[in-house]
Write the structure tokens for this entry.
Amino acid sequence: MRKGYLGIDIGSISTKGVVLDEQNEILDSLYIWTEGNPIEAVKRLVKELANRLEDVELYGIGTTGSARKLIGLMVDANIVKNEITAHAVGTTHFYPDVRTILEIGGQDSKMILIKNGIITDYAMNTLCAAGTGSFLSSQAKRLGVEIEDFGRLALTSKSPVKIAARCTVFAESDLIHKAQVGYKKEDIVAGLSRSVVLNYLNNVGKGKKIESPIVFQGGVSKNEGVKKYFEEILQSKVIVDPNSHLMGAIGIALLAHKNEDGRKRKFSMIDIPFDTKGFECEKCSNHCEILRIYKDHQMIEAWGSKCGKVS
Amino acid sequence: MGDYAVPAYFLLSHILRNEIIMPNKITARTIELGTKYSPEFVCTPFKYTLGTLLEGIENGAHILIQAGGGCRYGYYAELQEQIIKDLNIDCEFYNLVTAGKTNVKRIYHMMKKIDPKFSCFKGLYYLSITKKMIFYMDSLDHYIRANIGFEVEKGSFQKVKEEMLESFLKIKNHKELKKCYQKYKQKLEQIEVKKEQVLKVGIIGELYTLMEPYANYELEKVLASMNLEIKRYTNVYYLLFEKRKQVKKYLKNASSYITYQMGADAADNIGRAKELCEQGYDGIIHIKSSFCTPEIGAMPIINKVCSDYQVPVVFLSFDAATSEVGLKTRLEAFFDMLEMRKKQ
């Protein structure tokens, strides 16, 4: 049996899993859609990985991403960390001299500034989805373009149209107007990619000093159009790793390895029944939304109570 | 706002013969009520205070007293009065601050109108006790904030504090207040704390969001659970009695960054950011309610101060949303960053 470390990054749009070996080399990885159900997505992910890696025993599991806490309980993780730290750890492993990480995911976008392998500053979008992957994919659908072709189409444009970069609601109405007026699809797609970059730099990157080497990651980094406009506007080379969409999962797997607690875990832990029940507490006017978490039909935790008296 | 209902209640219940209604603690319902009748893009303190006033009316109040100033807040009382009148609620509205100014004579006449037997002498006497009470509360709060993250038995600070607030309501004169304060000060200092490798953060920003825990999703509690030492300058004592003097000091100390005041606490916060950097704090958290104009003006300058001193800063905006997950992620990442820097 080989030793392995599993990292799971559960994002709003996609769920990523990576298994590392003892030398921190990637044994296998998987990228699937979350489809609004992180529990089911992780079950599918782990089962698939278990089938492919029959000779691996897990010595550490880490979870990150917006569902990290819930899934951490489900898979009995030895480390649960926020995605900013996980991304920084993953990227510095491959690019030790990186200075700036640009990350655009499904619902979040962030910028991490690094010096000598240590995070010195970071910024994250305000609680708004402007210029993130979910906006791009919904607009691709509107234009009838497959999200996979989106970037390539943008590259063919010679004169991208101007699209409002401030807010998705304005961007969307801008986009509809431009399409109805008769602009070519590739020009609109290119304009949209450019507006994502401008939005990101105006919002997340405000007041931050962007220095190279620059690494661009997260789901949107697979979009060549967005990458091109980053390079054009920043006037600097932007690195996109082949595993750029997996960086969070790799980072958390590395952390799981580092914080190994000596316990062995099996892929089959996923078969233990796991369920949640949400309800609204009526005991005071706070009306807290309480979420109870059941593992093996027993309540193991309850979240959301403000007074701490209700569980 | 925060625990300040206690001194306000104390003062009013002693100088007026009317029945004083203690406002409810702010809950999800307060903000829901406030949001329902507020203009959409007004800042959250407006919504919270309007919600609290409406809840007060439900509890039977028919005299409302509002005080506020510094920024747009100075005009909120008039607007809230109009909103409540438009709802066809019959009540009297007293505004202690009009057009950003207070006038002792005007307040005296106001009090006389509320209670014809209002005595000026009594009013001033209890005002002086209340001032002292706020001073004591705030100075103990400074101690609690610096230590609550390190208490050995969870919840012990909170327990003593609640006890203290309750007994503050019962005191009758300066002597009793002082005795009460000393007793609880001792009690607080006896609480066992364990401090090792302390990370220190300063919280600055817009006053209402800073002082009302519900409005900042109990930020201080979250930070305490991460074992951080917390420093916060803004409190009612500062705003009422110290600000005028202090802000000049801040302007002088931070003269390389700012020359004039920018409304509300913007200049103070720039000065504080510089002071925190100089005092070796590990990080700064700046919070505000969304659309807070003075703080938006201060943010780029604070950013500059922090990058000059290489101290990390995080800016958080709060609105009437209810999910805390996004906030937790940002705070956790901030904490990780501070820890990594410290270790290096």
Observations:
- The longest strand of chain A covers residues 2-10.
- Chain A touches chain B at residues 66, 81-85, 116, 118-122, 124, 126-127, 207, 209, 284-289, 306 (CB under 8 Å).
- The CA atoms of residues 235 and 290 of chain A lie 49 Å apart.
